[in-house]
Specification:
mainly beta
Length: about 130
């Protein structure tokens, strides 16, 4: 896996998922329900939570599939802090998405030497 990258631009998909009141959206055979979970602390960092329930009904079989997940987003970091799937104990389907928690959060400047090549190398201008 690659390391996570902080998103310092105006477009952040996780920020757009955070709601302050329950919302429901219908799209074809799928219903998206978002419910706010309030605030929670992660390693001294405040995050806002939302529970997303995605209910999909197969038009041919009328079989209903439901995915419930909790998403915790830090407005201060502009980053996803935790995402986990809440599964039904009787559900035999594997998790649709892996659980994720951002850990070992350090709010300090990284060592400037990390951004320069080692002493034996030199940067040469390109074409």
């Amino acid at each position: 896996c690659m390391p996570r990258t902080l998103h310092y631009n105006n477009q952040n998909i996780w920020k757009d998922d955070i709601v302050d009141k329950p919302t429901q959206t219908h799209f074809l055979d799928t219903v998206y329900l978002s419910e706010p979970l309030g605030k929670r602390m992660f390693a001294g960092l405040e995050a806002l939570g939302v529970q997303r329930t995605i209910t999909r009904t197969d038009a041919q079989t009328a079989k209903v599939q439901k995915l419930v997940m909790q998403i915790w987003y830090s407005p201060d970091l502009k980053e996803l802090i935790q995402m986990k799937q809440i599964t039904d104990l009787h559900d035999t389907q594997p998790a649709a998405m892996p659980d994720f928690t951002l850990t070992n959060i350090h709010r300090t400047e990284p060592d400037a030497a990390l951004y320069y090549p080692p002493a034996a190398y030199e940067i040469q201008p390109g074409h």
